[in-house]
Amino acid sequence: MSGKDNIIIAKSAGFCPGVKRAIECVLELEAQGHKPIYTLGPLIHNKQVTDSLEAKGIKEIESLEEAKDKNGVLVIRAHGITPAFQKEIMDYGMKVVDATCLLVKKVHNVIEEYAKKGYDTVIVGDSKHAEVIGLMGYTQNKGIVVGSIEEAQHLPHFEKVNVVSQTTQKEATFLEIANIIKQKSKICNISNTICQPTKQRQTETTKCAKDADLVVVVGGHHSANTARLAKLCSDLCKNVIHVETSKDIEPQIIVNSKKIFITAGASTPISLVEEVANYIKTLKGEK
Ligand code: SF4
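That is the input. Now the predicted structure with iron/sulfur cluster docked in place:
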């Protein structure tokens, strides 16, 4: 941790390596003069960042048909996509740059390896999340998504099953669900595919949030990993606020709190964390 007095800023705050790589990738394409640059879905769930990318001519599209100018470049974002969609994109006739996070690709490989050996796949995660939709594409149509312990309890018996996780899941929940599935299965392989940056963020958050009077979670309101981080903090500290920028902060809550822990989701730029931290320090008379 870094910080002064009673304001602590998480070391793990800021872009995760996958998001950082995807952003650097589009900025490099832009610097090379490629135009237009299309990203399939938002590159990152942070409005401040997507607005600045849009200002540089980097366009977010929801479907392939929206990529009208075939002289442009299509960028696959860090979440990854299904092999079928990958093929469709390759056949579309445009330059494609794959910015799928290498740690997500590792999950694709684990799912594929076991699916080829006849295993069913259970993915612990959010069925609507783009990463999970992509992972399902590697299960050879023998995949199920489980979002909670209750859902896991209702799963059938499996002869052979491979249990994997969305990369940003809470580890304790994943392990509990995996154990329930193991009890129901003849052969069960548990692949803990929560990525290392997420594990580090969760470990640091768990350690610091329980000692804090207030936790400030910085990140987009539409970011699933930021929302999950805020939920993790709420289980450990009774005062948690989720803010996008310092404008969302009610000064009195800062004034009333002695020990403040500031953390952020994987899609939050460090500049926003610093902006929030500077505002809090100003309120505390530290600047
Ligand atoms: S959260 Fe982990 S797996 Fe997902 S993009 Fe970031 S580093 Fe990659």
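Residues 16-19, 78, 101, 103-104, 167-168, 195, 197-198, 266 surround iron/sulfur cluster (CB under 6 Å).
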